Amino acid sequence: MTMNKDKTQRPTEPTTPKAPFLEIRNWNKFQAISKTGKSLPWCKLYSAQADDIEYQRLSTFERGVLHDLYLVRTRTARPLHNDPTWLTRTTNTLPRYNARFTDAVHTLITRGFLTPTESVNLTCESEKESDGEKENEREIEREAQQPEKKPLVLTRPLSAKEKMEAVAAEFKAKRRRERESAL
Q1: Each residue's pLDDT tens digit, 60-79
Q2: β-strands 9-10, 21-24 pairing
Q3: How far is Cα 81 from Cα 69, in angstroms, rounded to an integer?
Q4: Secondary structure of 136-150 as H, E, C letters
Q5: How far apart are CA 125 and CA 141, in angstroms?
Q6: Angle separating helix axes 98-110 and 60-76, nearest 10 degrees
Q7: What are phi and psi of 51, to 5 degrees?
Q8: SS3 101
């Protein structure tokens, strides 16, 4: 228990039944699933969520926590641990907001945005890929194969010093890409 400014106590743990993992509602319906098991560099936000009455009832802080959990779920490519300490650390929550963060997670569980689950079993029926998910995977592969497009920028002529700086920056970027591709 922690003390609030008004001297009331607030639980630091959710009072819902303790399951080891939390799954995000509609995650598999709207997110692409990586066949390689690696995390994807992005996650999708669906616009219909803005019309959801329960989503509208969330405070700005609770929405922020939900979106942070989307990012953690994307990075880890698996359900979230139902551990307040782990959740606050992985979302980089400042210690002074830990109790508020835990309350927000409890609210998200109560309102159905997070579901406590017993296992990380990714082969259940709700996780099987549909045609839309397969299309998402194909789209990801196509995007990865396309060469990087550089925007056309019109500028004034560069001075000799600016040209040298641009060449040096381009050389450094090329070396960094070579090192990253070697890994």
Answers
A1: 999 999 999 999 988 888 88
A2: unpaired
A3: 11
A4: HHHHHHHHHHCCCCC
A5: 25
A6: 80
A7: -85, -10
A8: helix
What count of Cα atoms within 13 Å lies in the side-chain half-sphere of residue 54? 10
Q: Looking at residue 68, what DSSP letter applies?
A: H
Per-residue confidence (pLDDT) for residue 139, from 0 to 100: 66
In angstroms, rounded to a whole number, what is the distance separating the alpha carbons of residues 89 and 175?
33
Tell me which of 22-36, 67-81, 145-159 is least confident.
Answer: 145-159
For 77, which DSSP code?
T
Provide the edge-to-edge strand list for the sheet that holds 21-24: 80-81, 21-24, 114-117
Residue 172 to residues 11, 64, 169, 178, 179, Cα–Cα distance (Å):
51, 36, 5, 10, 11
Q: Tell me the one-letter amino acid at 11.
A: P
34 conformational bin, left if phi > 0, alpha if psi -120 to 50, beta if neither: beta
Domain ranges within the chain, ordered by starting residue: 2-141
pTM value is 0.56
**The pLDDT of residue 128 is above 50:** no
Q: For residues 84 and 12, is the Cβ–Cβ distance under 8 A? A: yes
